[in-house]
Amino acid sequence: MSPIAISRLLILAAVWGASFLFMRIIAPVLGTLPTAFFRVSIACLGLLVILALLRVSWDFNGKLKACLVLGMINSGIPATLYSVAAQVLPAGYSAIFNATTPLMGVLIGALCFREPMTPAKLSGIFLGLFGVGILSGAGPVAFDAKLMQGALSCLAATACYGLAGFLARRWLDQQGGLDSRLSALGSMLGATLLLLPLFSYSVLTQPPASWGGWQVWASLLGLGLVCTAFAYILYFRLISEIGPVKSSTVTFMIPAFGVLWGAWLLDEPLSMAHLYGGLLIAVALWLVLKPARA
Question: How far apart are CA 251 and CA 261, in angstroms?
Fold first, then answer.
């Protein structure tokens, strides 16, 4: 990869690592659906303003429908699942679970997109899942039904990311590709349309006990504008440049940022489970991503 692509990966890792911190602040106060809806809707509005200021041509080349569906898979569903996890898991845990995205990408690529499955990749998948199990059972959080709910929510979200990377390459990069800013806008619009009726129903039937203070809403702005709008522009740019699997390696760097943000700003405890789980997932990623022999 070029130095520019590597620098973009590092920036994206730092930004997405901070997203788990913001969700940990927001989700316990507002709940699952409000957190997810405000995240994608604020990102959508932010992208509208960015594209208007930059005078980007609003030509989706007939790919608007694909962007909307992709947004539901890549943004709407994962945002909801991570909001569920944020209510029961520390930010560092969610960030490390998120590192299984390349493993999910390899598995989905082999099952659905005829990507080659090598013994090293298969070993990496099982080793990565073992690392997730170590992290779940050996950390400072008690191993119970809530922890399992949070872990499964994170894994389901990474499966959505793994699928969406291949769909983005197939749907958006053909016939000349699509501007990454338009891809991000269409994605956020699709996620907003998916979550709007669910959010409305949840507010009418079971509104949050509190809508939070300035800290919650400042975190929402950071989550929506920086960790979602700006981050997805970078993400779609990377998919076009280096492909979905290599782009998903950003999740290898996210845990370090997620754990550090959580420990520094939320005083979340650190334990050897972070080290054990992170090292196993790191080795798994190396097995998955190392170049295959000719």
Answer: 15
